[in-house]
Amino acid sequence: MEFLTHVLGLRKPVQDYRKFKLSAINEPKYQHIKLLGGWLVYFALYFLTENLIPASACHVVHSAVDDLIPFNEFFVIPYVFWYLLVFGTLLWFLLYNIDGFKKVSTYIMITQAVAMAVYILWPSRQDLRPAEFLRDNFFTHLMAFIYSFDTSTGVCPSLHVAYSLGIASIWLREKQASAVWKVFVCIAVAVICAATTFVKQHSALDVAAALPLCALAEILTFHVFFPKKR
Predict the structure, then answer these.
(1) In this model, does residue 147 exceed pLDDT 70?
(2) Which end of the chain is more exposed for a tag (fewer CB within 10 A), N or C?
(3) Is the preceding omega at residue 157 within 30 degrees of 0, hence cis?
(4) 20 vs 77, residue with greater confidence
């Protein structure tokens, strides 16, 4: 994978962070690092919404399509790969394309802010998780672990899907990325989005709701339909 290739040292980063100190965060060459602070805000809001909004106060999200999608624990592989894809993408752009890092961070923060507002104003939950697993294997154990800390509330729209589409968008625009890598990312993102429904972390409606959210982030981040003022 390209971000792993670069991280392993085959290219020199455009910015040397080895001498970075927190006191230098306001220096022009380091200011973009402050965008990572958006994750702290998100995690704080995530903790509050997960713990202060009871499931009984949430609207149940369900569609007929959900009943046609069987639970399949093997989809936990792409579901978990999402974490590596998000981390690897942020790290690659942080090292090799700072403008791209700013854009992907902005995209993610827009989706985070809008989704958290929706979770607070219109709390949601899904009741799709299996009462028990039909098979006993490593993957069902992994799903049980994920279920234990990631509740079935605050699901619509799906941030798993929104982040994935944002990552695909930024890589498709990246001139340094090869065509093979771009194809891989697009396939991976498609499988990840499907995986959210097969592991019963999201309803198909959650996936659909992420699309207009991504459209908004696309417009605001990449100035689609209107030129950026210089």
Answers:
(1) yes
(2) C
(3) yes
(4) 77
Per-residue pLDDT at 8 exceeds 60 = no
Report residue 7's pLDDT band, with 50, 70 and 90 as the boundaries: very low
- Predicted TM-score of the model (pTM): 0.89
The stretch 17-25 carries a mean pLDDT of: 77
Q: What is the 3-state secondary structure (H, E, C) of the chain?
A: CHHHHHHHHHCCCCCCCCCCCHHHCCCCCCHHHHHHHHHHHHHHHHHHHHHHCCHHHCEECCCHHHHHCCCCHHHHHHHHHHHHHHHHHHHHHHHHCHHHHHHHHHHHHHHHHHHHHHHHHCCEECCCCCCCCCCCCHHHHHHHHHHHHCCCECCCCCHHHHHHHHHHHHHHHCCCCCHHHHHHHHHHHHHHHHHHHHCCCCCHHHHHHHHHHHHHHHHHHHCCCCCCCC
Looking up tokens 């990449």 gives: 222
Span 29-57, mean pLDDT?
89
Is residue 154 within 8 A of residue 50, CB to CB? The reply is yes
Characterize the bridge pairing of strands 124-125 and 59-60. Answer: parallel
Q: Tokens 């009871």, residue?
A: 54
Please answer whether residues 192 and 164 qualify as being in contact, where contact means their C-beta atoms are separated by less than 8 angstroms: yes
The residue ranges of every structural domain in the chain are 32-222
Residue 175 and residue 204: Cα distance in Å, rounded?
A: 33
Contacts of 112 by beta carbon, 8 Å cutoff, 6+ apart: 38, 41, 42, 159
Q: In this structure, are residues 72 and 198 in contact, taking their beta carbons and an 8 Å threshold?
A: yes
The owner of tokens 């001498």 is 19
